Amino acid sequence: MSAVIPIAKDSGCADLPVLRERGQREVFCGLTGIIWLHRKIQDAFFLVVGSRTCAHLIQSAAGVMIFAEPRFATAIIDERDLAGIADANEELDRVVRRLLERRPDIRMLFLVGSCPSEVIKLDLSRAAERLTREFLPQVRVLNYSGSGIETTFTQGEDACLAALAPQLPAAGANDPASLLVVGCLPDVVEDQFARLLGAMGLPRLAFFPPRSSQAMPVVGPNTRFLLAQPFLNDTARALELRGARRIAAPFPFGVEGTTAWLKAAADTFGISADAFGQATLAARERATKALQRHRERLQGKHIFFFPDSQLEIPLARFLSRELGMQLDEVGTPYLHREHLRQELDWLPPGTQLSEGQDVEKQLDRCRALAPDLVVCGLGLANPLEAEGIATKWAIELVFSPVHGYEQAADLAELFVRPLLRREKLTREAVCS
């Protein structure tokens, strides 16, 4: 068996100054997180308390046909509520009762706040407590905010899991140590990680959120947790308040990130280097080979990240170190230095980091640099494409399975496709 190849470390960007901007932003609100959360917790339901705009956003993002029965909906604040004719709390209780009568399969209900002023005035935490008293033990009702005033795109998941963390069963001080992988992952990726960690001989393993609200993992002082997503700041804090401790690690994007992420867990639980290498060798070699053809296409290309999903820094590290791309600017909505310490250490020295957004100033910098590829939200993609700049939708990087060894080449291909599309359009324009 081959020895585990040590991961080289650079001086990186951990201590570099960050360009902090506060101005007009271009970003989705946290309601969008419902699209992957409702697929993960399969007996939960997400009821957005909001406007028709909220309903249209969720329906459009999900792409669900009107005759399907998804596990989300919107309780719309309409003219009667705005005029004060109806009592909003009574109306909400009526909607919830009707929903639970129609959908007896629901075991957990999330009331999700949005940004209309009439919703902000509602105390959804009290409503959740009131409805929980009414419907326990069949249904537990929780609440969190997905308002664009309070959350950006991926922070809806953070808010949801942070609301759920205090409800997890408590583990005792004498219970054996266990590992908790935190963050929504597609089932196929979760299964892959479970196999790899199990093959190493890891004793106790659970995922949060689970696939069923009836299978919540226990958490306590002997729980160690690995973040699978870089935007779970409030969730990490909530778990630490329960006594769990975070394992410091980069994030599992690409071969290098996945290896270091798994190695951090192995080291924490005393797994030998030999056992770790044997469990991961085949997957590492497959992924490394699969990445090679994409490296030939991306090597030397310049990329610019607008702030959107908080995945920007780990993705930039992957593209730079494993695929040879040049980082013009790496913007992120919020930079959590503690959680991203290892990622920052691995960025090329001198990388331009930016936190927050003043979209007009950032667009000016982007145009001046003329990168080969821009990662941005949907609102900026079409205008930039019209200017001849290839773009990658940031939202696709969240909706697609991109974590782990088996998805490393798929992740790289997501950045190759827009370059191929731009080359084809250029050729067609020249021919015409």
Report on this model:
45% of the residues lie in helices and 16% in strands. It has 432 residues and is of the alpha/beta class. It has a 6-stranded parallel β-sheet with strand order 1-12-11-10-13-14, with helices on both faces. Strands 3-2-4-5 form a 4-stranded parallel β-sheet. β13 (373-376), α15 (378-386) and β14 form a beta-alpha-beta unit. α10 (254-268) packs antiparallel against α11 and α11 (273-298) runs parallel beside α17. The longest helix has 26 residues, at 273-298. The protein starts with 18 loop residues before the first strand and ends with a helix. The model is unreliable at 1-11 (pLDDT under 50).
Write the topology of this structure.
Blueprint: E1 19-22, H1 34-40, E2 44-50, H2 52-62, E3 72-76, H3 79-82, H4 88-102, E4 108-113, H5 117-120, H6 124-135, E5 140-145, H7 155-164, E6 178-182, H8 187-200, E7 205-208, E8 223-227, H9 233-241, E9 245-246, H10 254-268, H11 273-298, E10 302-305, H12 312-323, E11 326-332, H13 341-346, E12 353-357, H14 359-369, E13 373-376, H15 378-386, E14 391-393, H16 394-399, H17 408-431
Parallel strand pairs: 1-12, 2-3, 2-4, 4-5, 6-7, 6-8, 8-9, 10-11, 10-13, 11-12, 13-14
